[in-house]
Amino acid sequence: MIGRLNHVAIAVPDLDAAAEQYRSALGAKVGEPQDEPDHGVTVVFIELPNTKIELLYPLGDSSPISGFLEKNPAGGIHHICYEVDDIIAARDRLLESGARVLGDGEPKIGAHGKPVLFLHPKDFNGCLTELEEV
Fold first, then answer.
1. Domain residue extents for the chain
2. What is the DSSP letter of 21?
3. Nearest 10 degrees: Cα torsion 55, 104, 123, 5
4. CB 13: neighbour CB atoms within 10 A?
5. What is the pLDDT, as a whole number, of residue 96?
6. Which of 108, 21, 10, 6 has its CA nearest to residue 57?
7. Average pLDDT estimate for 33-47
8. Residue tagged active-site, from 36, 47, 96, 130
9. Where are the beta strands (DSSP E) in the chain?
10. Active site residue 130
11. Structure pTM?
12. pLDDT at residue 1 above 90?
């Protein structure tokens, strides 16, 4: 069921500074910021040869990233994302195994324009997990 690692998401307190650090200090290819209002975040993707890093910054007062940054003012790893071929089949299999899908259980369109779901971190060793259909 689980496929490739799609990205590792890092919540950051200063999106411009974080993007510039990857660009100048690490020489990475850094994308443009994109607002994702359905998820309450602004994201910047860092392209790596084998995966991506997603920088997350709060978009609006009700952003889930705001709470994360209150607890972790310097930022930190927020979630990991795995690819799946069929997100509905993956969701159903996970629900049957006792895993909890966050929200209403229905996929939303993510930053790559593809369906995504998030899985409760307590069901996956303390790690918030995102699934993205490819």
1. 5-133
2. I
3. -40
4. 14
5. 97
6. 10
7. 96
8. 130
9. 5-11, 29-30, 34-36, 41-47, 52-58, 76-84, 108-109, 115-119, 129-133
10. yes
11. 0.95
12. no
Spatial distance between the Cα atoms of 57 and 39, rounded to a whole number of angstroms:
11
The count of residues in the chain is 134
Per-residue pLDDT tens over the stretch 58-113 = 999 899 999 999 999 999 999 999 999 999 999 999 999 999 999 999 999 999 99
**30 Cβ contact list (under 8 Å, min separation 6):** 19, 22, 23, 44, 45, 46, 47
Q: Cα(51)–Cα(32) distance, rounded to whole angstroms?
A: 17
Distance (Å, whole) CA 14 – CA 74: 9
| Domain 5-133 architecture | Roll (3.10)
